[in-house]
């Protein structure tokens, strides 16, 4: 995130819209919400989400957060399911190219702002980077308690017993915690937070992360944040500690281990292969000479 | 060799071009003009303006053309455009009592000052397909217009009842700041003004079903149509630098005042209460449904039990917006394969465990499962 | 001995109807008080007022906390109050679906309070749940069943286990046996009596059934139209009622 200067505020890249689409008043409102979110890690700050030119549920929250923090010198990366080339990632990247005229990249290391849906990049993030998550349902207690007035109370009083009842039920029924994505975390020892529907594989990356993590939920009108180097703990039981998925084979293309893999169905005879979900990570490794069994 | 799928950019470009071509349809058929949509699909235009929260018939007509006639998509275009418009302030409250009436009916009084004005309505048409329309037969000239009803002589029914104390009065205008749910986050519970905003923007089909549910016993409110009036009202705005209101022109509105039985409680004597509906253009179905739901949402305020969906403001307001609903329902089209992979792994493992327990050989599929829970 | 609970002047009006009119009483540790009366007498409203679920128009409820300090419940913060309700108080509802999480297993229902106060050891929570299920005579193999699959009597026993797991000192019970078969009622009452004696619980039990009051309670409070008509030791009141209304109540039971 580079400090937006006054000149950039009027750049319109010939679209007739303000820099990064949103007007400056709206951006200030969103930045205030972001600052509050950073000050109270994991707390869901209500904000007056605008109606955006893309549908609710397709990243309007993340887009507004990104629009509010982008400066002219920023380099933007957009991923969906870990890939830069999925249609929605392409669509959002184009939106900012058109309305902000900023540079974009697919390289995690080169980006200053990374907007993501459902994944955290495999390459460790660095200080100065901002990871912007698109969030569909920001309320971790929503499916246990549908009422906003009640969940707000539970957060205010830090009454999170109900969340553990859910985990208890999982273990009682399945022998282990059956939540595989959107796995709830406790942030800075206080608020329980939904990490967005990233696989729980990515949860450990949120802990003590040097980058700033911002979460935008447009339809539900909430912004929350994890400041750099904040303790993020996945909820669990002492005798059923949190564990991530692991894969018993490496990426078929780049040979990477300890990464999240996509299962690709090759034919109708049961043939399938497993490749990196993070396309940039895979390409970088292959460029460095790593190969997998199918490459 | 497998190559990761590429080409999202090209696919999107091609899809957009194809969409434009399909939108135009057979080029041998003359293209629709925006003016034709505005004039001949008027009720559709009105609905797009109402749910789009923007009174601009030409823009709504254009949006309908661009959206290939999809109402929700057209509302989406109008709303996304509206977001970018500068705000100068709020107009004065419109005086629907001073409406130039095109239609005005009351179901509660046979006759009343100003009379019943039937106006343009489908109500008493026989729904027989008029094949003459297919041949472009022009309409018979309308009957000579009656002398325009004098607004002063057509007071709102609710004002008539109100004078006798039978109907709860309109809450006095205390000049309180007007909430704007497009500019402020909704903070439940919200007041009636914000609820009415949400309902006015709400999806007609959703509100119709909810209003209907109250009639069928899910939160009965014993409603009567006090009055429906359709017509033009003047819109006035007070610029800060002038300090007095200036007319901006007129807008067409449909207003519905539902009157509901109420038994009173404590210090409040029995009286009739109101549900209110107001939409742009002619939209009686929406205005009536809105009025029914508005009254239901006042349950808590009137000391009634909140037991059914139509009485629950979080339920109604969080779900009545067609854009929010369609966005979230349709986002299921976006790739979810990361999450699905996680679920796939879980189900495979559970099946393997289940199979082990029931001592049946696992299916070949679960043998292949390459994922496992670390240390489990 | 200082009472555990002191109720003074509790008043609640619904429109023109006085549901509770200046009710006052005290409750000692380990004491069981039965509130009896016909339906509409205000006895359930009284229980809701004591629990703070309905705001009183006037009056106060003071409780002696575990640290020995007696506090007016109105002066407790929301956090303190909710913590108190979750640990030191219990509330057994007439309608078990109001008192249980019907979609959560029996074990989860019993364990919820433990997790609410910070227990994070699955095995321990489960062991405690099993222990409590045994104490309320629910077979251990039902621990993973949701209460939807339980009979009415089992649901009430599960509610009791769910409430007692944090060793509360005060339990409110609203008609816990009504709607159950007579034999099931007898078994439940027997169990409640045993647990109350064993754990030294203070109980306020609301019932329209004088037989329940006679079996469980030390003292009785007779209500009619929002007022206390008569109060005293259970045997005394039921065997030698002074107020005409109580005499009527008692005789109608004998007639039944």
Count, helices of chain B: 14
- Taken together, the total number of domains of chain B comes to 3
Helix run count of chain A = 8
- Cα radius of gyration of chain B in angstroms: 27 Å
- Termini Cα gap of chain B: 34 Å
Largest sheet of chain B: 4 strands, antiparallel
The level of helicity of chain A is 25-40%
CA-atom Rg of chain A in angstroms: 20 Å
Please give the oligomerization state of what you see: heterotrimer
Order of strands across the main sheet of chain B:
1-2-3-4
What is the average per-residue confidence, as pLDDT of chain A, rounded to a whole number?
Answer: 91
Helix/strand order of chain A? HHEHEHEEEHHEEHEEEEEEH
User: How many distinct beta strands of chain B?
Assistant: 5
| Whole-number mean pLDDT of chain B | 87
- Major β-sheet of chain A, in short? 7 strands, mixed
Could you tell me which chain pair has the largest interface and how many residues each side has?
A-B, 76 and 59 residues
Extract low-pLDDT stretches of chain A. Answer: 4-13
Q: State the end-to-end distance of chain A.
A: 37 Å
Structural class of chain B: alpha+beta
Beta-sheet strand percentage of chain A?
15-25%
Number of strands of chain A: 13
How does this structure look, described?
The complex is a heterotrimer of chains A (295), B (376) and C (256). Chain A has 295 residues and is an alpha/beta fold. In chain A, 27% of the residues lie in helices and 18% in strands. In chain A, the strands form 3 sheets. In chain A, strands 1-9-8-5-4-2-3 form a 7-stranded mixed sheet. In chain A, strands 7-6-10 form a 3-stranded antiparallel sheet. A two-stranded antiparallel sheet of chain A has the order 12-13. In chain A, β12 and β13 form a beta hairpin. Chain B is built from 14 helices and 5 strands. Chain B folds into 3 domains: 9-82, no CATH class; 96-121 and 149-171 and 178-322, no CATH class; 337-367. Chain B has helices at residues 8-24, 34-40, 42-52, 57-66, 71-83, 131-134, 157-163, 192-201, 204-215, 284-297, 313-319, 322-330, 337-357, 364-368, and strands at residues 100-105, 223-237, 246-260, 273-280, 371-373. The relative contact order of chain B is 0.12. Chain B has a 4-stranded antiparallel sheet with strand order 1-2-3-4. The model of chain B is unreliable at 364-376 (pLDDT under 50). By secondary structure, chain B is an alpha+beta fold. With 256 residues, chain C is an alpha/beta fold. In chain C, 41% of the residues lie in helices and 25% in strands. Chain C is built from 10 helices and 10 strands. The relative contact order of chain C is 0.17. The model of chain C has no long low-confidence stretch (mean pLDDT 93). The chains are: A alpha/beta (295), B alpha+beta (376), C alpha/beta (256). Chains in contact: A-B, A-C. At the A-B interface, α4, β11, β12 and β13 of A face α1, α5, α12, α13 and α14 of B. β11 of chain A pairs antiparallel with β5 (371-373) of chain B, so a sheet runs across the interface.
